[in-house]
Amino acid sequence: MAIPNFYEKENEDEPCCSDPAIHNDDGMRVCHNCGMVLGRSFVATEKRAYTADEVKNRKRTEPRWRNFGPRTIIGTNSPDAKGVSLQGKKQAMFNRLSKIQGSLVNSLERNFWEARPKINQLAQKLNIPDHILETAWKIYSEVAKQKLTMGRSIDSFVTASLYAGIRIHNFPRLLEEVVDIALLPLRSVHRSLGLVVRNVLPVLNLRYKPISPGPLVFRFGNDLNLSVLVQQKAANMLKTALKHGLKKMGKDPKGLAAAALYIAAKSTAERKTQTEISEIARVTEVTLRTRAKQIKLNI
């Protein structure tokens, strides 16, 4: 029988018996009165510990695993695997072993320890799919191996690697959005992105693709709460204009996508103002009107 997976919830009554006594034993939630296994117990984001008892209850004695570097990390917790407190000599020995293990870690692993949580957090805030995140981490790993981060900001290279992965997979995210979420200067990310494109992507045989206005049409349409019919109409209109001679070289794809949505929504009840569309697309109203005229001439 498969054991159900769900996150641990505190103070939740489980209908297992008349007097449930639910405890966490070896990663399982078990009722000590009836013996029923309720499911796996996952360690999620816990609340902050304030008292000594809370700190003691939340100490982890199991090995901590990483995708890189030493697989098992020697911790400095006082209890052993069974929860029994270590004696003074043994606790001092494990503290010494932990320090020795830390001194054996090279600079590349320390770089990864700092960069991996940052790139995961940034991808989570931007709702980036896992396959793009893996490409971004592959790019950053090559950045660190080439020692491009020496004397430069790790945060900038993390942001540049993630945006390079976005461009490789043609995912509808803008550089301005990534920079705003990362809270970094645009100029610093631009400089790091240039190094990534010149020195890293050729080694990995990855192609830095230009932004396509097609995916941006649906992205901006969802942000503007437009219906699927209007978004599809705008996408077809943009394809027709490109086939009939509209040149997209030298034109910002954001402006083309925004102009197509403006024209498609103008004749419906979902009409949006130029200010609303330009704010979502991050272009000026002048650019929006200019691109709209060019699309109309090529339909």
From TrEMBL:
One of its GO terms (cellular component) is transcription preinitiation complex. It comes from the Archaea. GO terms for molecular function: TBP-class protein binding; translation initiation factor activity. One of its GO terms (biological process) is transcription preinitiation complex assembly. PROSITE patterns: TFIIB. SMART domains: CYCLIN. SUPFAM superfamilies: Cyclin-like. The keyword Transcription applies. Keywords: Repeat, Transcription, Transcription regulation. Residues 117-205, 215-297 form the Cyclin-like domain. Belongs to the TFIIB family. This is Transcription initiation factor IIB. It comes from Promethearchaeum syntrophicum.
